[in-house]
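USER:
Before I trust my own judgement here, I would like a peer's view. Write it directly below this note and I will take it from there.

ASSISTANT:
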Amino acid sequence: MRRLVHAPAPAAVLTALLAAVLGLSASGCSGGDAPGPGSPAASGPAAGAPAAVAVTTVSEVSADEPLRVGVVVTLRSEPGQGQDLVGAAEGATVAAYRLGLGGGRVELEVVDDQGTAEGAGAAVEQLLDAEVAGIVAATRGDHLDAAVEAATAAGTAVLLPYDRDGELPAGAFATGPAAADVDRVLLEAMAGDGLSRPFVLTADDVEVDVGSADAATIGADVDDVAARVAAAHDAGRVDSVVVAAAASTQARMVAALQGVAPAVPVVLSPEALSPAFAAGLDEAAGTTAGAYLSAGTDAGDATSLAQGARAEAVSAFFAALRLAAGDDASTDLFGDAAFAEVAADADTASHDAVLSIAAAARAAGSVETADVLSALSGLQAGPAEGLAGPGLDFGGERALPAADVVALRATGQDPGARPVAAGAGPRLYWFADDTTG
């Protein structure tokens, strides 16, 4: 188990860091043409007073004892069991960094569950022994089921930012889109595009319910499946293809489709939002230069170019990410590399899950496990608590409101919100489709 500690920054360091953020804020977008990738305007928050980068949520309650947050990740797994999310989980590092800037004492207890039920059980047992205030399961898959049950039975809150399916035990909260909301949004967006007869391809226990004119399971030979889709499209039986699978599987399938059916509209389950999808396309000799539709929240790189409260909240996340990437003392979750090397993959979902646990600790006035769980149940968290994405309502097991799940389109144009590591491959950036909903 890796213990990543974020202690309060010395006053001089904190002053310098915040001055750097304010300098970035002054170059925020103020209308007119959209800034080009890498321009100063593309890197700053939206116009208006910048959102706070330092988060002071636990500065008082962690004065005597640090806030310990467990983070479960999956370094290696079968497709669909979380491996594609290990980079996204680095958003937890950004959350801890922001809490540290705000004067909080935060420890991330990071454990690899190895993508198996046994590994997940062992990971949770380690975190329970460490007496963490709450657990962020920054992975997905049915290998987590028994471990989540064990954690909540022991009185420890579990937040799942990437879970869509199934019922959760009391004390567990999904902070990402529900499966039904993903299905609804995809259907609405497809209807808006005039698509009603999809060829639905599934694998890795990932599914979407959008109807189908034909269907198949993605196996080892994606070329055969792609040929079936092309033939059905040429015959007029289908008007689109929906690929629901782990990001790496989606990439192999889409690359094969590009070779034989490049004109078929492609709809993707939210697994494609992972940077692993674009990386997989590149590895499979595919191209990111396609028109892709998916569903998720409006809390990505492109959101920082807009104006309003949401854009400012997202911009604060990216300002903190850039500061962490420029801090020589900041490492990845396991301490194996500089944070700058993984900053390109960190997302807001894992970040917001950590900050939600911190908000519960503040509401409880305590970092003790039972107190945090009690305060989390019914808590409402949003920008005031430092969240970058939509507000979360912990009155039920699905904390993300249905209205905040939106259609997303992809672009290869970099909004310039985060630093790019040397040798980084192609990437897709997802933005909300304001013509739907």
